[in-house]
Specification:
Elements: H1 2-5, H2 17-48, H3 55-66, H4 70-88, H5 96-101, H6 117-128
Helix pairs in contact: 2-3, 2-4, 3-4
Length: 129
């Protein structure tokens, strides 16, 4: 009976390719707007509960209270932490010329990276043996 009322020719199940692309773009924009709204609200939770909870607990409380499902919850938590991190830990860009500048830009105040120290120590020990 419903087939007569809603024939397939009027409401095709598959959209044309151009319409499908526009639909996916609109969906992506809508999902991004939802994420931004959740991040703004989570930041408000962090600010409001700052005296009572740490920022990570406040974010968890927001996600639990709002009942945000897991794939979206991880995105909201990560993006909220990124916004908080921008305020607390400023991002510094360093180009290759700044890295080689040394003491001119205050690089001596930063700790020396010791990524290869363990390898070099093993190589020295093997040479001695």
């Amino acid at each position: 009976m419903l087939r007569n009322l809603l024939p397939e020719s009027l409401f095709p199940r598959k959209l044309p390719a151009a319409a499908d692309r526009r639909l996916r773009l609109a969906q992506a924009r809508a999902e991004e707007a939802v994420i931004r709204a959740h991040v703004d609200n989570a930041l408000m939770f962090v600010d409001t509960l700052a005296e009572d909870l740490s920022f990570d607990r406040a974010i968890e409380t927001y996600i639990r209270t709002m009942g945000i499902p897991e794939p979206l919850a991880s995105v909201v938590a990560t993006r909220t932490l990124v916004v908080l991190g921008q305020d607390l830990v400023p991002y510094r860009r360093r180009g290759r010329d700044q890295e080689t500048a040394g003491d001119e830009d205050g690089a001596s105040s930063r700790p020396r990276l010791r990524l290869n120290d363990a390898v070099e120590a093993r190589q020295r020990a093997m040479r001695r043996a």
